[in-house]
Structure prediction request, 199 residues.
Amino acid sequence: MISKKSQQLGSGAFGSVFKTANIHNPAHQVAIKVLDKQKLRDNVDLIMEEVAILNTLDHPNIVKYYETYDDNKYIYLVMEYISGVQLFTKITNTANQAFSEAQAAKYMRSLFMAINHCHAQGIVHRDIKPENIMINEEDDVRLIDFGLSKASKRKNMHTVAGTPFYMAPEVLLENYASKADIWSLGVLLYTLVSGYLPF
Prediction:
């Protein structure tokens, strides 16, 4: 059961995200994606694919997925609430928009471990960028937003997906595999230490 004291965290084309808590245990806070089925239409299968992917992942640097509910109008994805900021916000609030090598290395180590876990499960994230990385209050990394992720089954993918500045060249050529995530991490590392994008 969800508390009525919910706080909207954001919204998108298909719905909104709320911070809330279990009414029997207010200390257990969660984030709930509330997705409108009418707006989703043909994209319901993509949401179910995201749920299936999240269900296979269990890593301290990846957002935790708890459960899914649905009714006639909405799909509800219940996930870990991460108290903190997007890495993008942290970058823009940092002097010269660049981190020290030590700080960048700390974040990148966590991200490489998270992506290694994904790839070991046959999952390619396909949209690694500062907006999809949360930094919690303990300064730990959480990789979020698996909406564009794909279970690759070791086969090459042919759909262009991701954010152009972080996208590997082979994605644009429509023939790529999990290593495309490594390119995105390289772009991110360059950005963290230099304060600007390489391309």
Summary: The beta strands are 7-11, 15-22, 25-36, 65-70, 74-80, 84-86, 123-124, 133-136, 141-143, 150-151. Helices lie at 37-40, 44-56, 87-92, 101-120, 169-172, 179-194. The domain at 84-194 is CATH 1.10.510.10 (Transferase(Phosphotransferase); domain 1).
